[in-house]
C-alpha cells in the first residue's frame, strides 16, 4: 500500500536526518541533504523539511542566505514528510544538543505519542485522545500546545478535515476504519500556545483561478506541488530571485497562495514534538515506524 511505502521512506529519512543534526552544522545543510535523500529513495517531500529550535515550535525552514548553525544546548525538532503520488507520510523527532535538562521534555511528547497510537481504532473519539495527551504531558510538569494539533491526511492533502487535539476539546467525533492521521503531541515549558512569528517562506496553493501576472510560476506550482506546501527557495531554483519574489507577492495578494508564519511559543517556552502517521484499524498501522 502506498501510504505504507511513503511511511517507510519518511521514517528512513528521519533516521538519516537526525544524525546530521550536530553542533556547528548549518541548518541548510541538513534540509538539503534530507531533500536529496527523499529523492534518492524515489519519493518527494510532502512539505519543506522543517528544523525548529528551542522556542520555535514549527515552520522554520532555512532561507537562501540563512547562516544559522546548531549550537550547544539547542533542542531541535526535525519534522519531515514525503509523498508518493500524493500518498503522504509525516513524522518528526526531537533532538537534544544540550545536557540533561531537556530530557524529560523530550520524553513527555514521546510518551504521549506512544500512549495514543494504540487508540487509533474505529470508535475512539478525538477528544479522548486529546485528554490522554494532556494528562501525560501535564504529568511531566509541562503543558501541551493547545493551538497545534494532529491532522487527518488524504491524497495530496496534508491537513484534511479532522484534527487531533493535544487536550480534551470535547470533540465526540469517532475515528473510522481506514482514516489516516498524522499525530503530533507538542510539550512545552511555557504556557502552551504558539503565536505567529516571521514569514517562513513556506506557501500553499489555496485557489487556482486565472491571473494576469505570475502565471508561469503558478503553473509550475500546480504541476510540482499541487496543494502541498512548498518553499520559496524551491521556486527560486527554477525562476531566479526576481521573478520568484514578484510572482509569489502577486499570487499571495490575489489570495491564491497561503503564506505560513514561523510558530513561536507565546511565553518563550522550550518546545518538544514527536510525530508518527497512523492508519485507523482494529490494529492501528503506524506507517512511519521502522
Ligand atoms: Mn510533521
Ligand atoms: Mn504533521
Give the tags:
16 strands; 26% strand; alpha+beta; four-stranded antiparallel β-sheet; Creatine Amidinohydrolase; 290 residues; binds manganese (II) ion; Arc Repressor Mutant, subunit A; 2 domains
Fold and architecture overview:
This protein is α+β, with helices and mostly antiparallel strands and 290 residues long. The chain folds into two domains: 2-196 and 267-286, Creatinase/methionine aminopeptidase superfamily (Creatine Amidinohydrolase, Alpha-Beta Complex), CATH 3.90.230.10; 197-262, Arc Repressor Mutant, subunit A. Helix content is 32%, strand content 26%. The protein has six helices and 16 strands. It has helices at residues 2-20, 27-40, 103-116, 126-139, 215-224, 232-253, and strands at 44-45, 50-53, 56-58, 75-84, 87-96, 143-144, 150-153, 163-164, 180-183, 186-188, 194-205, 230-231, 257-265, 271-273, 276-279, 285-286. The strands form four sheets. A five-stranded antiparallel beta sheet has the order 8-7-9-15-16. Strands 1, 2, 4 and 5 form a four-stranded antiparallel beta sheet that branches. It has a four-stranded antiparallel beta sheet with strand order 3-13-11-12, covered by helices on one side. Strand 4 (75-84) and strand 5 form a beta hairpin. Helix 1 (2-20) packs antiparallel against helix 2, helix 3 (103-116) runs antiparallel to helix 4 (126-139) and helix 5 crosses helix 6. The mean pLDDT is 97. The chain binds manganese (II) ion (MN) (2 copies). One manganese (II) ion is lined by residues 79, 81, 90, 92, 182, 184, 275.
Amino acid at each position: 500500500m502506498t501510504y505504507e511505502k511513503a511511511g517507510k521512506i519518511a521514517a528512513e529519512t528521519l533516521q538519516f536526518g537526525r544524525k546530521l543534526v550536530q553542533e556547528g552544522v548549518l541548518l541548510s545543510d541538513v534540509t538539503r541533504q534530507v531533500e536529496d535523500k527523499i529523492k534518492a529513495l524515489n519519493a518527494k517531500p510532502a512539505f519543506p523539511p522543517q528544523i525548529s529550535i528551542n522556542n520555535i515550535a514549527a515552520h522554520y525552514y532555512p532561507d537562501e542566505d540563512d547562516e544559522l548553525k546548531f549550537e550547544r544546548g539547542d533542542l531541535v525538532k526535525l519534522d519531515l514528510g514525503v509523498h508518493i503520488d500524493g500518498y503522504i507520510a509525516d513524522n518528526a523527532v526531537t533532538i537534544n544538543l544540550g545536557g540533561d535538562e531537556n530530557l524529560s521534555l523530550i520524553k513527555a511528547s514521546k510518551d504521549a505519542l506512544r500512549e495514543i497510537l494504540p487508540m487509533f481504532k474505529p470508535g475512539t473519539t478525538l477528544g479522548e485522545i486529546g485528554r490522554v495527551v494532556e494528562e501525560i504531558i501535564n504529568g511531566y510538569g509541562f503543558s501541551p500546545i493547545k493551538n497545534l494539533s494532529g491532522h487527518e491526511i488524504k491524497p495530496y492533502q496534508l491537513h484534511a478535515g479532522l484534527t487531533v487535539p493535544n487536550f480534551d476539546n470535547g470533540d465526540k467525533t469517532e475515528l473510522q476504519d481506514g482514516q489516516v492521521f498524522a499525530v503530533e503531541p507538542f510539550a512545552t515549558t511555557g504556557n502552551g500556545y504558539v503565536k505567529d512569528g516571521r514569514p517562513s517562506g513556506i506557501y500553499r496553493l489555496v485557489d487556482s483561478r486565472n491571473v494576469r501576472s505570475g502565471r508561469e510560476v503558478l503553473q509550475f506550482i500546480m504541476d510540482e506541488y499541487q496543494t502541498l506546501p512548498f518553499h520559496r527557495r524551491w521556486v527560486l531554483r527554477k525562476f531566479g530571485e526576481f521573478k520568484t519574489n514578484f510572482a509569489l507577492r502577486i499570487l499571495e495578494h490575489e489570495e491564491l497562495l497561503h503564506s505560513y508564519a514561523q510558530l513561536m511559543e507565546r511565553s518563550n517556552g522550550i518546545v518538544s514534538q514527536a510525530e508518527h502517521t497512523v492508519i485507523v484499524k482494529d490494529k492501528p498501522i503506524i506507517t512511519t515506524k521502522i
